[in-house]
Design a protein that fits this description.
Layout lengths: L11 H4 L3 H10 L4 H10 L12 H7 L4 H9 L3 H24 L5 H23 L7 H19 L1 H5 L4 H13 L6 H21 L5 H8 L3 H15 L12 H14 L1 H9 L2 H11 L7 H15 L7 H8 L2 H13 L1 H13 L4 H14 L7 H18 L10 E3 L8 E3 L4 E2 L7 E2 L2 H10 L2 H18 L2 H17 L1 H14 L7 E6 L6 E6 L8 H11 L8 E9 L2 E9 L2 H17 L5 H13 L6 E3 L1
Parallel strand pairs: 5-7
Antiparallel strand pairs: 1-2, 3-4, 5-6, 7-8, 8-9
Helix pairs in contact: 2-3, 3-6, 4-6, 6-8, 7-8, 8-10, 8-11, 10-11, 10-12, 11-14, 13-15, 14-15, 14-17, 16-17, 16-18, 16-19, 18-21, 19-20, 20-22, 21-22, 26-28, 26-29, 28-29
């Protein structure tokens, strides 16, 4: 298929060039790559209003002769093939010059015609590159990034991104330029590439945009995009380029922020490939003498906080990896720069002390962390509070076997024991049973048959957020808090049941670790899990037929900045929960408030209970 003949591609345009340029254009069309380059060099002296008249040369060399080129590969015709590739590269250089220099009114129309053909040749050259290794793809892509900017300027953002294949073309160009190590190409191409990323960031943020999907396809998935982002950051913070005033750090950090917020899978991959550790390393290595250091440092810390704000299975290892000597070196600088960033970081680390990998890292680093000196009293107080919390949580590492306990999901049964003594429901992957009899009874009488699918969806969400090992250790943390704060929990449950108007409401006991220290609150369950109250009430009604009614539902909550995970749990210590219910009903009858006598009743109940509350997945 031949290239559509736009008026700008007609040979008559060459005739209107000054004589010198006319001769150079006609000579270039004979096919010598050096002559094409000579035309491009000479065209720098042409007025912008007439540069477009050399476009017939571009039209001539972008015609499709790919089939004959493929034949050359089969016949070992490498000299002819090499010449054709050199012609194409020289032509791409010529297009780049025209796109940047021309103020021709129809430049947008020309680019619309050229882009599909450029994309065609790029795809062909990539396929050819898989067969022969002399195709200089990075240089072709270098020209594409410049053309990308020119196209944006001439056509407008929305129209450009509507062109098929453009985002894929940009993604491949980005990857080829950043990873070129042989020709110092990034030094020349980075300014144009950074500007291209700025345009692309706007496209990512546009409602309904498929920018990230297309970009990820070009890079073989979110994993490829995450690796490219980190490679780009390494390039930005190399010694040569960190001083380059044209390097747009802000635009690239904005791209990371928008892309991560639009794609959870990308956030997960960025954590997996240790983006947070790289950011800390870059921050620690910034030259203090540079005037832009303070601004760049703040951007790095903001990006670090964003990276640590998505709860995924990789988050615990990601945070644990950040806890190193470089982090301790950067921490005082963060405290000195901005208290808000520092407070957010300490809160994030505090919330993460419910994760075993984080506690193991803290245990190794704790002696060094105690030597950190902070000038600001408020910051020092926050740091001391975090260290104290870390010491308290590290003790729980010795109790990790508690996370292996399970309780039977059947409301009639109160058996608690090692995980190996229970079988898990294959449908929901949540409920555990000590016997087939208990499973059948729970399936029929307690409504598990109607809730199995709902629990399955909850399980799949949890698997996306945290690993099985992390969830097991969370049970250890929750068991500990339940045991040491039993009196507080008991009094709050009594107050809830005493005052709540609707006695059919299930109580939700929240264990909120969002600020590090566990905060316990009690309120109606439907506030945490809208739409599930009816199903839970059926379970409670069935449980009341037996001795061990499960009146209270426990909710484990961890929130890091804007991201949170709620895990619904129940206590197998039904004697304690039912006793609290009875105390509350007695207060309702006498219309008494919760006072010292009630507290004593709760304490007496705790003493009568012969075991701590064992918590399991509900």
């Amino acid at each position: 298929m031949s290239l559509p003949v736009h008026p700008a591609f007609r040979l008559s345009n060459v005739a209107q060039l000054p004589d010198r340029y006319k001769r150079l254009a006609m000579l270039a069309m004979q096919g010598n790559p050096d002559d094409i380059d000579a035309l491009r060099s000479a065209a720098r002296d042409l007025k912008d209003s007439v540069v477009h008249r050399i476009l017939p040369v571009v039209h001539h060399f972008l015609q499709d002769d790919s089939s004959s080129l493929q034949d050359l590969v089969g016949r070992d015709g490498f000299p002819a093939l090499t010449k054709r590739v050199e012609q194409l590269l020289a032509t791409f250089n010529l297009i780049r010059h025209v796109a940047l220099s021309s103020n021709y009114d129809s430049l947008a129309d020309i680019l619309r015609v050229l882009l599909p053909r450029i994309w065609f040749w790029i795809e062909f050259l990539e396929a050819l590159h898989a067969q022969v290794d002399f195709i200089p793809l990075p240089h072709f892509y270098d020209n594409i990034t410049v053309m990308f900017v020119a196209v944006m300027s001439a056509m407008g953002q929305e129209e450009v991104f509507a062109l098929p294949g453009l985002r894929c073309m940009f993604g491949r160009a980005w990857m080829a330029i950043v990873r070129d190590r042989e020709n110092d190409l990034p030094d020349r191409a980075l300014p144009a590439l950074s500007l291209s990323i700025r345009y692309f960031t706007y496209d990512v943020g546009f409602e309904g945009s498929t920018a990230l999907e297309e970009l990820c396809r070009a890079l073989r998935g979110e994993e490829g995009l995450a690796m490219l982002i980190i490679d780009h950051l390494k390039l930005l913070f190399s010694t040569r380029l960190v001083r380059d005033p044209e390097t747009t750090f802000d635009d690239f950090f904005l791209f990371i922020e928008k892309a991560s917020s639009c794609c959870r899978r990308l956030s997960e991959q960025l954590q997996r490939f240790r983006l947070a550790q790289w950011l800390i390393g870059f921050a620690a290595a910034l030259p203090s003498s540079e005037p832009s250091t303070e601004t760049i440092f703040n951007r790095l810390v903001d990006s670090l906080l964003d990276t640590l704000s998505t709860i995924t299975p990789h988050l615990p290892a990601c945070i644990a990896g950040c806890l190193n000597k470089r982090f301790l070196a950067v921490l005082p600088v963060i405290a000195a720069e901005t208290e808000d960033q520092y407070s957010a970081l300490i809160e994030c680390l505090s919330a993460a002390t419910v994760f075993r990998p984080v506690l193991e890292a803290l245990e190794r680093l704790l002696p060094t962390m105690e030597d950190v000196e902070l000038d600001d009293n408020t910051c020092a107080h926050l740091w001391d509070g975090f260290l104290q919390l870390a010491r308290e949580r590290i003790v729980l590492l010795e109790k990790s076997d508690l996370g292996k306990l399970r309780a039977c999901h059947n409301a009639k049964c109160s058996k608690v024991g090692p995980k190996v003594e229970f079988k898990r429901c294959g449908g929901c992957m949540v409920a555990h049973y000590c016997s087939k009899t208990c499973q059948r009874e729970d399936y029929r009488a307690s409504g598990h048959r109607t809730r199995c699918a709902e629990l399955r969806a909850s399980y799949m969400h949890d698997q996306e957020c945290l690993s099985t090992g992390d969830l097991a250790f969370l049970r250890v943390v929750l068991n500990h808090e339940f045991a040491v704060r039993k009196e507080e929990i008991g009094v709050k449950l009594v107050e809830f049941w005493r005052t709540v108007p609707d006695q059919s409401l299930a109580a939700s006991v929240n264990f909120d670790f969002s600020h590090g220290e566990c905060e316990v609150t009690v309120h109606p369950l439907d506030q945490d899990f809208p739409g599930t109250a009816d199903a839970l009430e059926r379970l409670r009604a069935a449980a009341r037929e037996f001795d061990g009614a499960k009146h209270a539902i426990l909710v484990f909550l961890i929130r890091i900045r804007d991201c949170s995970v709620r895990r619904r749990l129940s206590s197998s210590d039904t004697v304690f929960v039912d006793g609290l219910w009875d105390i509350a009903q007695g207060l309702r009858k006498t219309e008494d408030a919760v006072g010292s006598e009630t507290v004593e009743d709760v304490r007496a109940l705790i003493k009568r209970c012969d075991r701590e509350g064992i918590v399991h997945t509900f």
